[in-house]
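Researcher: I've been going back and forth with a colleague about how ABC transporter might be arranged in three dimensions. Neither of us has a model we trust, so I'd like an independent prediction. The organism is Vallitalea longa, in case that matters for your notes. Sequence below.
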Amino acid sequence: MSILRFENVSREDGNTVLIDDISFTIDRGQCMSIKCTEEMSLTMMNMITSKIMPTKGEIIIDEKSPEDYFKKNNKNIGVIYKEEGFYDRLTVNDYLTFFNRLFNYKQKMKDVLTRFALLDIADSRINSLSYSEKKRISLARALINKPDLLLIQEPTLNLDRQSSRIIRENIVHMKSIGISILAFSVTLEDTILIDGDSYILNEKGLNIIENELENQKENDTDNDSITQIDISNENDETELPNIKIEKIPTKIDDKIILFNPMEIDYIETIDGSCYLNVGTEKFQCSLTLSSLEKRLKHIGFFRCHRSYLVNLQRVREVITWTRNSYSLILDDKNKSSIPLSKGRMEELKQILNI
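Model: Here is an independent structure prediction for ABC transporter. You can compare it with whatever you and your colleague have in mind.
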């Protein structure tokens, strides 16, 4: 049974279209993450919580309109904003104990603090804590409430590694106890790494980010054809080796810039276009990610995700966040973190002999 439905929902502000005719359904215990602008996420959260009304379409929460739902169930939707207000002078323990009593939560406070790695700072005032620690407190508060639906803006953006792992693990836990989650992020990586269904919302509408496993056949077909070419070349003793000089073209204004592949840290797709990440800069490329993969695979580039192609010489760490969530940390200037699909993990291990 669904907990939330958007049916052809639009929202306009004057002459500006903020949300344009989107439809989706979230079932109980399901997590859905959406890559969109901060303005879009705030608009959707405000419509769901009945602060503003859709210009067109209908929002249905547990088979009721938001207005009717909130008349009796205002505690059954949890909301975590990117920047939250806290009772800053309270300690972590006092703050969460307050909500524990408010929502009549039955679990021991020590268990909650332990689950979110807050036990060692339980007696610290909230105003002395880091942004990452405060985000863990927000999610702990949401678990105490145990809402039917949790809306969360930027669950892991700009968090330290420990906090990112804890939040991702607890989102999986929340799903397992029946909490539905709608998460928003401005970055593709954070959207993908949340355990659930991932979407992109932009001027083209709401579109699912296809799972790598669903496209494995297509990729395998490409890989097979490449392998056959390699084998035939090896068996043909009379054929001289081809000498290729690979340069990847990008265009800036009226100039064409050619990059040596070893200059490229990774390549990503954003809204259907490919971008080369070189140092701290991005350069748009007219080639598709699939064609770039074919050109660069033989010199150490790896399709780690449907939307990413990484230079394996730049990979410093492989991080496991949850059972189905992985990242690659690069040793580039930005210490970039990019997603690794579950279906690609074994292939990467074979390539790296790990």
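Researcher: What would you highlight for our discussion?
Model: I'd start with this: The radius of gyration is 23 Å. After that, consider the following. Residues 216-235 form the longest helix (20 residues).
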